[in-house]
Amino acid sequence: DAKTTQPNSMESNEEEPVHLPCNHSTISGTDYIHWYRQLPSQGPEYVIHGLTSNVNNRMASLAIAEDRKSSTLILHRATLRDAAVYYCILRRGSTLGRLYFGRGTQLTVWP
Amino acid sequence: DTAVSQTPKYLVTQMGNDKSIKCEQNLGHDTMYWYKQDSKKFLKIMFSYNNKELIINETVPNRFSPKSPDKAHLNLHINSLELGDSAVYFCASSQDPGTANTEAFFGQGTRLTVV
């Protein structure tokens, strides 16, 4: 499975934008880039996903590099509730829906 | 209305016992999964079922036996519990597992403690 690399931790102040990076230099042409997050004592929660183009939804934006070897999850205005572990995961159809989680990035949001 | 629900939320049991965790999804998805999150917070896929049929077993010991009475339910039975089975177990579901263009929905987890 294609591997992703994320910083272990990041910090932000409340109401500031947060840019969470992810490197995936071995990504294949059919791999989708997915982001999930896990809030304390909860199950993982889907955030956003994309293939080539940048994506926006109500939770976040996903910026994908032109060569697709990296991506950035953007939280436009961090809130205390956004403090979580964020996982960047590559998914391909052959994995039959399985998600392979790495260590993710622990995001701390300061009031 | 909870999309993926698991019961119980907490389970404390002695070594050697047999226990079950139940999972139900009301999303109409065809595929359900079990994941295990260990004490170091590493989250790993265990099983996936599609339309009540096992499609993936990620080298999980055969003391773990998932059972799917219908496509909305996937229960996890664990026999002869060991200390190392202590973890948080998450159920999940998704549609169209053969495509990578869908998201998965997770339950809130069951914290299993074996003493």
Outline the structure in words.
The complex is a heterodimer of chains A (111) and B (115). Chain A has 111 residues and is mainly β. Helices cover 0% and strands 45% of the residues of chain A. Chain A contains no helices and nine strands. A five-stranded mixed β-sheet of chain A has the order 1-9-8-3-4, with no helix packed on it. Chain A has a four-stranded antiparallel β-sheet with strand order 2-7-6-5, with no helix packed on it. Chain A is globular. In chain B, 0% of the residues lie in helices and 55% in strands. In chain B, the strands form two sheets. In chain B, strands 2, 4, 5, 6, 9, 10 and 11 form a seven-stranded mixed β-sheet that branches. In chain B, β7 and β8 form a beta hairpin. Classes of the chains: A mainly beta (111), B mainly beta (115). Chains A and B meet through β3, β4 and β8 of A and β4, β5, β9 and β10 of B.
